[in-house]
């Protein structure tokens, strides 16, 4: 008896959500997306939140891990740069951007060097910087690896950039990407 009531309640809630989400989606598709805060269009929200479906919203906060939140799954390299020592590339830094989550983070990889040896050589790090308020997150290359990635910043409607470095002993290579406007990526991703 209880199962039947629970099933009926769930079906009723689903039907109510369908009634509400239909007009919101219609407004978004008609170009009224800015008039409906948080309305979805092709899986994107105007308020920077992540959507798995049009009726389920997960807010992506500053300082979260892009892999743990699923934001890394659709990530692109929005900007990148190499840093060299004596003309040889030694560090590659990327500004990673998730169109679905509207977040950005930095990823750094050492190039043409052995694995990092902590307190010795070949280690480095990366930082993502949000220009609007100066929010930054950094990472340091773990021992025995070639790189790291930072926590993410919510990048909806603002610009961010990444910088990275690697220490090869006597010299350090630095690289900084250009800034990237997340809204431009959103427009391109939804055909705008």
Structure description:
The protein is α+β, with helices and mostly antiparallel strands and 192 residues long. The protein folds into two domains: 2-58, no CATH class; 71-189, Sandwich (Immunoglobulin-like). The protein has helices at residues 2-32, 182-189, and strands spanning 40-41, 44-45, 50-53, 56-58, 76-85, 88-98, 103-110, 123-130, 136-140, 147-149, 153-154, 159-167, 172-176, 180-181. Strands 5, 6, 7, 10 and 11 form a five-stranded antiparallel β-sheet that branches. Strands 8, 9, 12, 13 and 14 form a five-stranded antiparallel β-sheet that branches. The chain has a two-stranded antiparallel sheet with strand order 1-2. Strand 6 and strand 7 (103-110) form a beta hairpin. The longest helix is centred in the first third of the chain and has 31 residues, at 2-32. The model is unreliable at 9-57 and 184-192 (pLDDT under 50).
Would you spell out the secondary-structure blueprint of this structure?
Layout: H1 2-32, E1 40-41, E2 44-45, E3 50-53, E4 56-58, E5 76-85, E6 88-98, E7 103-110, E8 123-130, E9 136-140, E10 147-149, E11 153-154, E12 159-167, E13 172-176, E14 180-181, H2 182-189
Antiparallel strand pairs: 1-2, 3-4, 5-6, 6-7, 7-10, 7-11, 8-9, 8-12, 12-13, 12-14
